[in-house]
Write a structure and sequence with these properties.
Layout (H helix, E strand, L loop, with lengths): L6 H12 L8 H9 L17 H8 L20 H24 L7 E6 L2 H12 L5 E4 L4 H14 L2 E4 L5 H10 L3 E7 L11 H10 L4 E4 L4 H4 L2 H4 L3 E5 L13 E6 H15 L5 H10 L3 H20 L4 E5 L9 H7 L6 E6 L2 H12 L6 E3 L8 E4 L11 H7 L5 E5 L5 H15 L2
Parallel strand pairs: 2-3, 2-4, 4-5, 5-6, 10-11
Antiparallel strand pairs: 1-7, 6-7, 8-9, 9-12, 11-12
Helix pairs in contact: 1-4, 4-12, 5-11, 15-17
Bound molecules: pyridoxal-5'-phosphate (PLP).
Pyridoxal-5'-phosphate (PLP) binds next to helix 5 and helix 6.
Amino acid sequence: MSHYDWWEKWMDRKHRYAKTEQVFMDEGLFNAKSVGTGLPSIYQQSTFSFQNVEDGRSRFLGVSPSGEKPFARIYTRLGNPTTEYLEKIMFQLECQHIIDNALAADEKEPTIGVMVTSSGMGAISTCIMSLLSSGDEVIVGTVYGCTDSLFRHMDEKYGVKAHFIDTSNLEKVAETLEQHPKIRAIYVETPENPTLKLNDIRGLSKLTEQHEIPLIADNTFCSPYLQQPYRLGADIVIHSMTKYVNGHSTSVAGIMLGPWDFMLNHAFVFYKDLGATPSPFDSWLNAQNVQDLAVRQKHQCTSAEKIARFLDTHPMVSKTIYPFLDSHPQHQLAKRQMRMGGAMISFELKGGYDAAVKLMNYFARHDTPMELAVSLGSVITYIQHPASMTHGGVPEDEKKRMGITEELVRISVGLEGTDVLINALEKGIRLAHA
Ligand SMILES: Cc1ncc(COP(=O)(O)O)c(C=O)c1O
C-alpha cells in the first residue's frame, strides 16, 4: 500500500487519462491554446470583498457557485484571478489530453491541480516540503544548483535524506529503490542542467509505480512545447517559468502541476503558508509571453541545432553536448521524448579553465551578441560557466560525478540569428586561444 493517501485514486486517473501513446500535443492546437481568448485585467489587489458572510464562508471552504477558483478571490497570497488565467493556459498546454480524456469519460472530479508560484524555486520548495516528511528519503538526479542545495538543507535540517544518483541509469535507480524502502519520491530534470543528460521518463515512471511513489519532473529546459511529462508517466510536473515561458527575462515565476487531491490537501496548504505567490502583474506578463512560446522556441531550437553542429566539428572544441546530435549518447531517447533538441548547448573548450574564462569575458563585452549571464530560455542568448557560476556551490566531488568540468561552457540560444551567433562564437573561441 502506498504511503500517500491520494495515490490509489491518482493511479486510476493516470492510467485512464494521463499516460498516452501520443507523445506531443498537436502543434496547431498548442499555438491556439497558448494564445487563449484574451488576457484578463491585472487584478492588482491584495484582497477581495465578499458579497455576504455566506459567500466568504463558502470561498474559505473552497466552494464557488460560479465555477471560478474560490481561493483566487479571497486574498492574493491564496490566489488571484490574473494568476488563475495563466494557470488555466499552462494547465491546458501540459494537460489538454487529460481534460479531453476525462470529459469523454464523463469524469466528475478534477484530475490535476495547478499552482503558479513566485519563482521556480517557489514551486520546487512548496512541492518538496508538502510531499516529504522527516524520516522520508528521496532520489535526486543531477539538478539545478539551488534545487540541489534545497535537498541538502532538507537533509541537514529536516531529516529528509536525499540520494543523489545518476537517474539516467535505470538499473542504479532500481537498485537504490530496493535498498532504501523509505524512498518516497524521485526528482529529476530532463535534460539535466548543465550536462544535458536525459532521464527516461517512461522508464523511471515504471519504477516509481512499482514502488507507489511519485516521479517529479522539472520540465524547465523543455517547456510543454518540447516535452509533456504527463503523457510519458510523470506524476508531478514543475517549471521555472522564468525561462522559456517568460522568454524575455522580464520576470521570475514558477508552476507546479500535480494529482488533484495532493494539490488541494497538501501542496496548496504549504503554498499559502510559505507564501510563494506571484504578483498579479508578473502573471499577466507571463500570460502574454506564453502566447508566442512555440513560435519563439521552435526558432531557438532550429538555431541551436545548427550552432551545435558548428561546435561539434570545431577544432578548438573537445566535446559538444546537444540532445539531437548523433554523438549524444541518448539521442534516440531524446527523439522519443522531445519534439526538438532544445535551445541549450553545453561544450568543453580546449585550453581548460583559462580558455573558458577568456571566452566568457569576450561575451561580457557590450559589442557581442550574447550576454554573460546565468539564466536561459530568453530571446537573448546567454553564455555561462557552470563550474564557477550556477554550480559553484556544489561540492567538488559531486561536480566531478555530474560531469561539470572546469572547461564546460553552457549556452542558451536566443533569437539573434544563427549566423550572427556562429560568427561571434568563432571570434570568441579564436580570441580565447590567442
Ligand atoms: C532547471 C531549473 N529548475 C528550476 C530553476 C529555478 O527557477 P527560478 O530561478 O525561477 O526560481 C532553474 C533556474 O535556473 C532551473 O534551471
